[in-house]
Each structure stands twice: as C-alpha cells, then as structure tokens.
Write a structure and sequence with these properties.
Layout (H helix, E strand, L loop, with lengths): L1 H25 L3 H10 L3 H23 L4 H28 L4 H6 L1 H5 L1
Helix pairs in contact: 1-4, 2-3, 3-4
Length: 114
C-alpha cells in the first residue's frame, strides 16, 4: 500500500507541474482544444474520447462508492472534471481512511460494513 500511495503522490505532482507549464505556455483553453481534436476525427481526438470515457467511469465509480448521495454525486463530478489530480488525492485520502483495506477502498465503508 505504501508504494501505491507514493505513486499517487508522484502522479499528482507530475500532472500538476505539467499542467502549470502547459497553462503558462498556452493559457486555459482546454475545452476548445480537447473537443476540437475530437471533431477532427484524428488520433488525438480518439485519445481524448477514450480518456473522456475513462473519466466518466472514474466519476461513476466515485459516485457509486458513495451510494449516489449528494456528496457522492459532487465527488463523482469532481472526478470526471478533475481527472488524475483529483483521483490521486481522493485515493490518498480513502486509502488512509481504510487503513490499507482494499475491499473498503474499492467498495466504500457502507458496503463493507453492511
């Protein structure tokens, strides 16, 4: 579990740093570029569509883990929009709360207890 948590920290630092460099060089115009690539039906667009599907699965899992409660829906939306930076921090928090119990990490405390 310790190595996984280190990986999450490295991922968070790496993507946050990379994002800062990109924003500094190109500004905050992610959505026109992201969806523009998809509209051109090339490999960058294919990658973006695939990535967006993974983000949707991530958001659905987070919302499901919280039983689609109000908090769960908000966290799910944050997972969808926040990508790896959000999910790495979220997983750091829940792995700490679960004290390494991966069953609880994957299913949520409510499903493990009940």
């Amino acid at each position: 579990m310790g190595l996984f948590r280190i990986l999450l920290v490295v991922m968070f630092i790496t993507i946050t740093g990379y994002t800062a460099v990109v924003v500094n060089a190109h500004g905050i115009n992610l959505f026109p570029v992201f969806f523009g690539d998809m509209a051109r039906f090339g490999w960058p667009g294919q990658f973006n569509l695939d990535f967006m599907c993974m983000l949707a699965l991530s958001g659905l899992w987070v919302a499901w883990r919280h039983a689609f409660s109000g908090t769960g829906l908000l966290l799910g939306l944050m997972a969808f929009l926040g990508g790896a930076p959000f999910l790495s921090v979220y997983l750091l928090v829940v792995t700490g709360q679960a004290k390494g119990d991966m069953r609880e990490v994957l299913l949520g405390k409510r499903r493990v207890a009940g």
